[in-house]
Amino acid sequence: MSCLWPIILPVLHLTQLCSALQSVSSSFTQVPFLTVWNAPTANCLSLYGIDLDLGMFDIVHNQNQTFIGDNITIFYAEKLGLYPRYGNQGAPINGGVPQNSSLEEHLRAASDDIRLYIPTRDFQGLAVVDWESWRPVWERNWDTKQIYWEGSKALVWSKHPDWSPEQVETAARMEFEKAGRQFMEETLILGRNEKPNGLWGFYGFPNCYNYYKSTNYTGECPTIERKRNDELFWLWNVSSALYPDIYLSLPLRDLDEEVYLYCHYRILEAMRAASQATPQNPPVFPYARIVYTYSLDFLSQEHLVYTIGESAALGSAGVVLWGDNMFSKSQVKLLKEILVIDETLGPYLVNVTSAAALCSQTLCSSHGRCQRRSANSGVYLHLDPSVWKIRSHKKPTGRRDYKVLGQLRQRDVALMKAKFTCNCYPGWSGDRFWSEIFLPVNPALSFTPLTLLPDLMLLLFTLFMQLSSLPEPCWYPCI
């Protein structure tokens, strides 16, 4: 059938595709599930001639696998401006507490640092600020961080020696939280102005403080901590990404459900905080590790599911795999890491990212990511092993390459629709939307009110019966 000259006839059509909106965002937010490598493993190649070859698992990493680069840059305390804090011996650095430091001087220095460490004009990677010396909510500066209470009160005492302890603490808290907010808020605003397409946020925020305890552990974030996170709405509003952590400590190694609960509620709290931001919800990238903290013991398969898999199932944009230089210090440790990546971590990442991509195509027309309809359902974005196979073969280098083989069945589609929903990428909208479809219409048709209805009914019938088989040049989707 030859194509007729198209006349634009708007037909309301209900669909689950995502419609385009005007929005500028990082390309990293337009991926169903992203894995980012944030570990300094450059020595693997330079010292031992061993290439981790992370690309075969679609793991995003910087050139030479450094902490600072085009895909991810992490700013530690000394790398971004004049971050006020106390040193290990209690000596003040840049004023100690934020209210005793110059915000203006900090921002000038931070601007220079951003241009130094992120020279790329159109940086679209992750920009993570890692400030851990103090917390912007007064009550959270417990244990060794109490020095910020004392430093803040000392400043007030020096100005008002006749005030009562209660008056001093009230004023100290107000001054500290106001200045702390200004330092964090203005730093992110500066970063977003300098590199507007970067994903700016603070590492470790939000935190759930749902640490494991041996009795009656539910994993839920304490109510008081959720309220304190609500006080940080200003931080979520200026963040273009959130970076909570889901690190697992060594005592959790032999636990099962407790690990699931711990990670589940930490990720959920980050998603809840992101939902408070306006006008756009920042994507969530939990920080995870492939080993238990302060050890060289790798996560079990189950714990990879509870960290990486749970992040994907709850709708996170991806995970950041952080690591220090412990494994690159010896060839034996490095070879052990490669074995784990090849045999356990890599195949699991291929599984999750492939399943996330299939779900995105199925539910979101590849313009969004899937997340559980019910957060507590326990379903995961995993390939069905009875249908999908992850095949590997050795390359000349000795490393393995992976391919995913299988076919999506109708019942798989039905299961996805039942268990997951679509969360559109920035710049796209709609769980459902009404769109205009351009139909080929005979120019001889008379569009008077009396004759329109029969012709329209015929066109609708033709649409539903033949749309899937129309030659591509014969219809024009709404853009």
Characteristic terms for this protein:
signal; 17 strands; disulfide bond; TIM Barrel; globular; 479 residues; 11 helices; disordered C terminus; alpha/beta; Hyaluronidase; three-stranded parallel beta sheet; hydrolase; single chain
Describe this structure in words.
The chain is an alpha/beta fold and 479 residues long. The protein has a single domain, classed as Alpha-Beta Barrel (TIM Barrel), CATH 3.20.20. 36% of the residues lie in helices and 13% in strands. The chain is built from eleven helices and 17 strands. The chain has helices spanning 43-48, 103-117, 147-159, 165-194, 223-231, 233-238, 257-276, 301-313, 331-364, 410-419, 449-466; strands spanning 12-15, 19-20, 34-38, 59-60, 72-75, 85-86, 92-93, 126-129, 199-202, 287-288, 318-322, 368-372, 389-394, 400-405, 420-424, 428-429, 433-436. The strands form seven sheets. Strands 4-3-11-10 form a four-stranded parallel sheet. β6 and β7 (92-93) form a beta hairpin. α2 runs parallel beside α4 (165-194). The chain is globular, with a radius of gyration of 26 Å. The protein starts with 11 loop residues before the first strand and ends in a 13-residue tail after the last helix.
Q: Specify Rg, calculated over alpha carbons.
A: 26 Å
Shape: globular
Number of continuous helical runs:
11
CATH topology: TIM Barrel
Instruction: Please report the total strand number as a whole number.
Output: 17
Write a compact overview of the structure shown.
Keywords: Disulfide bond, EGF-like domain, Glycoprotein, Glycosidase, Hydrolase, Lysosome, Secreted, Signal. Helices cover 36% and strands 13% of the residues.
